[in-house]
């Protein structure tokens, strides 16, 4: 059974599509300007690149997609503030449990490997004497 999220909207206006296209053109223009200004000093090329990229970001952020991205970032930040982090003592205990488990598992796998090696090579095949 497929469920749909009522908050997801895939309909975008032609003005929104134009904003996204303009942002894309500005990004391409920024890169093109950087290389077309090869005869100019590096600082001027970098300034042109950064100005055009900033304009592209600005145009993107005023589009509906950009507004959704900003809202997503704000929601993510709000959810991150709700996280209850473990205390130092709890973190150290859990780290100790993980190390102990890894050590026990490594010993178990090593013993299993050596037992199978002994059974196969010594008992079954008789290759070692």
TrEMBL record:
Keyword line: Cell membrane, Membrane, Protein transport, Translocation, Transmembrane, Transmembrane helix, Transport
Subcellular localization: Membrane
Gene3D superfamilies: Preprotein translocase secy subunit
Domain of life: Bacteria
One protein family per Pfam: SecE
Ranges that cross the membrane: 20-37, 43-62, 91-111
Phosphoprotein is among the record's keywords: no
Subunit structure: Component of the Sec protein translocase complex. Heterotrimer consisting of SecY, SecE and SecG subunits. The heterotrimers can form oligomers, although 1 heterotrimer is thought to be able to translocate proteins. Interacts with the ribosome. Interacts with SecDF, and other proteins may be involved. Interacts with SecA.
Family statement drawn from the similarity comment of this UniProt entry: Belongs to the SecE/SEC61-gamma family.
Record protein name field: Protein translocase subunit SecE
Species whose genome carries this gene: Aquincola tertiaricarbonis
Gene: secE
């Amino acid at each position: 059974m497929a469920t749909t999220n009522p908050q997801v909207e895939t309909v975008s206006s032609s003005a929104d599509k134009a904003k996204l296209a303009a942002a894309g053109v500005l990004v391409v223009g920024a890169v093109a300007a950087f290389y077309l200004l090869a005869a100019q000093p590096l600082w001027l090329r970098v300034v042109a690149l950064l100005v055009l990229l900033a304009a592209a970001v600005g145009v993107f952020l005023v589009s509906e997609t950009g507004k959704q991205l900003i809202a997503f970032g704000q929601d993510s930040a709000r959810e991150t503030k709700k996280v209850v982090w473990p205390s130092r003592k709890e973190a150290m205990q859990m780290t100790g449990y993980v190390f102990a488990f890894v050590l026990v598992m490594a010993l178990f796998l090593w013993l299993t490997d050596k037992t199978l090696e002994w059974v196969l090579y010594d008992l079954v095949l008789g290759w070692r004497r």
